[in-house]
Amino acid sequence: MARDRSLDIAPASVRDYRELARKRLPRQLFDYIDGGAYEESTMRANESDLGELQLRQRVMRDVSNLDLRTTVVGQDLSMPVILAPVGLAGMFAPRAEVLAARAAQNAGVAFCESTVSIAGIEEVQRSTNAPFWFQLYVMRDRSYAETLMARASAAHCPVLVLTVDLAVVGARYRDTRNAMIGEVSALAKARRGVDLVTHPQWIRDVAIGGKPHTFGNLEDAVPEGRSPADFREWVDAQFDPSVTWEDLAWVREHWKGKLVIKGVLDAEDARIAADAGVDAIVVSNHGGRQLDDTPSTVQALGPIVQAVGEQLEVLVDGGIRSGLDVTKMIALGAKACLVGRAWAWAVAGGGQQGVEHVLETIRDEMKVAMALTGAPTIAALNPDILVSTPR
To answer: 301 CB contacts (<8 Å, ≥6 apart)?
Structure first.
């Protein structure tokens, strides 16, 4: 990949792209990607708890034919990785959702479009040839949600990812400090303006070159020009705290494809989801962006796999920054991993090429991890390749 003179590095890992994103994005946008809820302890634990797991290196095994392929909710993937839904991604790079979907297509993995994407469902469909997933929030305006499901179905999305951990929105203090939400004083507006104008490349490439800045899936409700505070007010009004498991019947009525529930962190909730007949769940604490001081996803994964792993597919996200992380999660029983911040940093730092580079890096890291733990296939990844399991 071409050398990046702005940092005097050639990006090699996900963390390198995080640094590129930090330099290239206005602080308010970088912190939106990078931050978590409250004191961000759960966000940090997602990474640190995963990092504490050690791989069991084995030798003299035949690993001459490594095979990373797998099938997730009926879709063949070249490796067990899915680009997670990331809201507002089109503010990090011009038409970022399209760039990420193309990168996923080229890598043979799945891309999941967020409800609150800048590039809408139809634009992503026009720009790619591979099926992509669609993520939906349970909204107060059920007719609007039904319309979104119909649009996703018309775009031949095979999987609906229903995010269920936003009955209310967690307090993300970085967004408050950056005047992204809440009451905005004149001084805060001035600071925000300075933040923007000191990033001329972002202004040229994204603010101007990335138009239109409508929320492509919500443009009827959130038209171009609405402020972040207006958007947050609309979104907050749409999250429905009265939702229960019984509402899955309504989703099933309007969605005939595969159904994945995202935001499960408790084994009892996982059993309820399994009994409800969903196709898969995502063990997730929303990247530490909702309730702080909850278990990390690597801590929650094992008990959930034990509870429902034979009934449905268990996916996981949170803190996954490398192919080694993916390998560990698969060894603990996950069918696949969703990565969010990793591709958001990559698209901000390097566009489509950045996302493709990150995916190829994850693939290469997985190959090394599998070869040196003596596991030539995804099916061979199990707890035996770990020195220890989460406490």
So the answer is: 283, 314, 316, 329, 332, 333, 334, 390
The model's pTM: 0.94
Is residue 248 within 8 Å of residue 127, measured between CB atoms?
no
Q: Which residues pair with 382 in a beta bridge?
A: none
For the four alpha carbons of 33, 36, 39 and 41, in that order, the dihedral sign comes to negative
The 10 Å Cβ neighbour count of residue 245 is 13
Backbone angles phi and psi of 203, in degrees to 5: -60, -45
Helix (H) or strand (E) run with residue 282 in it: strand 280-283
Do 66 and 363 form a contact (C-beta atoms < 8 A)? no
- pLDDT tens digits for 158-198? 999 999 998 878 788 788 777 676 666 777 778 888 988 89
Architecture of domain 14-173+235-385: Alpha-Beta Barrel (3.20)
- To the query of whether residue 286 is one of the catalytic residues in this protein, the response is yes
Contact 32, 180 (CB under 8 A): yes
Question: 3-state DSSP call for residue 238?
Answer: helix
Arithmetic mean of pLDDT, 1-27: 78
In the set 156, 213, 286, 357, the catalytic residue is: 286
DSSP 8-27: TB---SHHHHHHHHHHHS-H
Pairing of strands 70-72, 280-283: unpaired
Longest distance between any two alpha carbons in the chain, whole Å: 67
**Where are the chain's structural domains?**
14-173+235-385
Which string of b and e fits 77-116 if b means at least 16 CB within 10 Å?
Answer: bebbbbbbbbbbbbbbbbbbbbbbbbbbbebbbbbbbbbb
